[in-house]
Amino acid sequence: MIIKPFIYIVTAASIAFAAPAFAQSWGSTGAVTVALTMTYQSEALRLKDEFGNVLPDTEEGGGGSTFENTYTVETLGGPVDERVPIKSVTTTEYGSKLGVWRWGNAQIIQSLVGDGTLPEIGKSPFLAGWSIIMVFDELGNVTGVVARHTNKTTVPINFAIAPNAFEVAAISSKEVVTDYTPLTDIPSRTETRTYSKSYKRPASASVPSYTGEPFNLSGLLSGGFKVTPKTSVDSETDEKITTFVYSPNASRLDRLVGVGGFAPYQDLIEGSISVAAGVIVDMDVFTPAPLE
């Protein structure tokens, strides 16, 4: 029976660095691209004094922006030397506007370097060379997400995509096993597999943020899988071992909506997260065992 690949939620603690193996330990990796838009509410009014005069936007003047102003204007009447208020008008005004900024790979890497999760490599602001990579085992299961530098420094990070149980999918699968008698001078059994799958399903994501707490988002996940035979050689027996590696096609979590930032003026988060088609790798090389 062919095992159907799936994706499940992972955190940084989920990644285990591979132990030495006699044959290659296959898996796949896909580059992650985060493209989020943060819409926020900001002050739209110039700060005024109690008489309705705009304050100079200097340190001495005390000016700037505000959501609300309250000021009073009095009208005086009577003889010149005995002027008294005959009318008082108090005005309260409110104004806000929408601002937009972006949260993507560069901002995530910068925040992870800033909080000490990632080491400072190269020149400030220490962004160059880093990528965000999703890691899959040979069955297409997510084993973690890492930040990986071009110098091979690899650090697990708390980043996850968690699909809902509901899924609609188009699947094509075939497994062919051929058995040979001892009279033939070829292996007693050969096996071939084909597998393709495309799917759509609700999903959520947990993305590192600037607050120290992750952005929690929900959207629609679409993608697929395929199978590729990979052959390695057992270093002790010289036996050829064929492993059928299930790797993901390009996937995309879009129509994302969430809320993040600092209360009370939080951000509305929209956008997408893309994962490139999986590149099959030897996991013992990609995540080598730590030196003892």
Number of strands: 17
Estimated helix fraction: under 10%
Series of H and E elements: EEEEEEHEEEEEEEEEEEH
Largest β-sheet summary = 13 strands, antiparallel
CA radius of gyration is: 30 Å
Q: What percent of residues are in strands?
A: over 45%
> How many separate structural domains?
1
**End-to-end distance:** 39 Å
Give the overall form: elongated
On the 0 to 100 scale, the average pLDDT is: 86
Oligomer: single chain
| Low-pLDDT residue intervals, each spanning 5 or more residues | 1-22
- Which class do the helix and strand fractions yield? mainly beta
Number of helices: 2
If you had to describe this structure to a student in words, what would you say it looks like?
This protein is mainly β. It is built from two helices and 17 strands. It has helices spanning 105-114, 283-286; strands at 26-43, 45-46, 65-66, 68-77, 84-94, 96-104, 130-137, 142-149, 154-156, 160-163, 168-179, 189-207, 215-233, 240-248, 251-260, 267-275, 279-282. Strands 1, 6, 7, 8, 9, 10, 11, 12, 13, 14, 15, 16 and 17 form a 13-stranded antiparallel β-sheet that branches. It has a two-stranded antiparallel sheet with strand order 2-3. The chain has a two-stranded antiparallel ribbon with strand order 4-5. A hairpin with a 7-residue loop joins strand 12 and strand 13. The longest helix has 10 residues, at 105-114. The two termini are 39 Å apart.
